[in-house]
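User: structure tokens for this one?
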Amino acid sequence: MRKRALFVGALLTASILLSACGKSSSTAEPQPNKGEENGYEPVTIRMAYNLPQDHHISIGVENFAKTVTEKSGGKVKIQVYPAGQLLSDKEMNQAILTGGVEMGVNSSTLWASTVPAMGIFDVPYAFPNHETAGKALSGELREKLNKAMEEKGVKVLMYADYGYAQFANNVRPLKSPEDFKGLKIRSIGDIPSEMIKAYGASPVFLGAGEVYTALQRKTIDGATSGTTAMLQRHYDEVAKYLTINNYSYLEFILAVNKNFWDRLPEKTKHLLTETAQQTEQWIRAKAKEEDERTAKELAEKGMEVYVVPESDLQKWKKAAQPAREVYIERAGDLGKELLDIVENIQ
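Assistant:
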């Protein structure tokens, strides 16, 4: 009898335990951000950029890294090295190409030395407004540039709109191309240098972090950059004049070493691609707003601002024609195709 009682008790205990387990399983909250449950394989990706951390592109890519890490439950970790801590803008591309870093953000201007067609964004006055750039990067132009980059060993994950490039200087207001004559102007790439020479000035290559001191010591007379960076790098303290002529629509590229990219699981690629697309749209929406805000703030801080009237832009464009011709010479048939695409955007 005693054995039977023990047997029944054991059955009851087992029944209660099974019931409890079943209840726990059916009512447990899902854990969508857990990497193991979502099937993400552990990987650490180093990402470097050179822009100031409060730039809208920097804010965007920092959020991109955070979102990828969170959505993968910490399995896909993006370690961010900001503001030139790991690599300068001049070192970035080679590091990405060789796998010295898996991912990096750098200007399309600097990528043009590897893929000449990428210089399309530097062709003077090719992109008349922010909307034209957005449309161009939503179609055939993007596809052709991505293919050219992949042939060199780089996967483009994102085009981050920096905004328009302008001119700051310490000598005189630049109200026409003739006013550039004799000046030493910091350039940001080969095609802008050709335009600076066409305007009668001498281009000087300097890293972004070197410009403030060069202006302060008067080793250069002026510099070209976006007003976002001019404000963040305090150009107003070392340059008196600002000319708004919107000559170049600057893009920054979030690029990945292709060999590394090809080895990633499809699920991780999808997460990175989807998050990059969302980030790109946010950055594009901010670019126009930031161009307007920062130009206004530089004026408030004492810079004398001259906005080139639209009626005068044709004269500036005509004088810059040699830069356009150099782009076509270097980028060849692909360069001509890209210019045709941009010029036919409605």
